[in-house]
Amino acid sequence: MNETVNIEISQRGKQILRIVIEEHIRTGRPVGSRFVSKKLGGAISPATVRNVMQDLEEVGLLWQPHTSAGRVPTALALRYYLANMMKPKKLTLAEKKKIEQVFLNDFTDILQLMENVGRVLAALSNEISVIVSPGGEDMILHKIELIPISSKNVVLVLVTRTGMTRSIVMECSGIEPRKLEEFGQRLNERLAGLTFSEIKKTIRERIADLQRIYSSFSSKLVQSAKEIFSVEDEVTAVFGRENIIKKPEFSDQRQLSQLMSICESDELLIKCIPSDVPPGQVEIVIDSPPIEQLAMVVSSYSFGYGRGFLGVVGSRRMNYPKLVELVSYTANRISHLLSGEEIEERG
Predict the structure, then answer these.
(1) b vs e for 250-272, b when ≥16 Cβ sit within 10 Å of the residue's Cβ?
(2) Staple partner for 236: which of 22, 85, 250, 266, CB 3.0–4.6 Å?
(3) CA of 305: how far to CAs of 241, 279, 288, in Å?
(4) Which domains does the chain have, with CATH numbers?
């Protein structure tokens, strides 16, 4: 999931570090030696805990906001925890049900699906959710339908492998309904299974012989292919900004302003996302420019020959065990849906 962090820590140090990290994630407050001692059932005295905390501070894993306070984990400590201690927490049946409901609902395009997924992800994570769509040209054509609506006009319906549709009205005078149906069948033989990008580049060659038979409509289709098979490019959607205002660390106006400015910039958000994260696997980015003092749990999902991304952004003290499972599960479900398998299973 994330790179290994190699630091020599005693068994006692690991116990104490885990308690400090998990309690800080839960409360957002510095963790004191008395609390840790009590959590360990009194097996280690507060004085001994303080000494171990001092050792952990010296190797860069803890820091003390001020002399009378407890300790807070550093970004390095969180990376160590993620690499060596954390175990993903399984989603509850209720959480899975909320996610599954998104995929049971009908959607007409990828942007609507993104919105539905983004809202559920924000609600379940209590963080900000980020969804990046794949480039539209990675859509795979399932079939074309040609529907005459008058003596001069035809509706050309593109159906993608995911079940999403796009309709374009085209002028088509002088072609009989029987020939129109026949032309549609021929088009499907040549174009179904290709990405929109491939169709735009090769349609002229693929249907060259059809232009002699269906010259008028075929020529219009070739001439308009760039517009017909163009879909909005990569889109970023952000949901749940209101979730972070309640968190104590964002009472600092500077930190809140930083997070908001990142969430308002598609370019900055995309910069935060590791481009090599495989579909369904999870990458965690902590305190890395441009998201200093922040964290992101992110995965990718497959879409035709392309990929989109989804994740959550927020404070460094996220509930990582839950969010890793949430992001991975959702990414895998989207990949399965957009592969077209689920559409075929339903229909």
Answers:
(1) beeeebeebbeebbeeeeebeeb
(2) 266
(3) 31, 12, 29
(4) 11-84 (1.10.10.10), 93-136+234-346 (3.30.450.40), 140-228 (3.30.390.60)
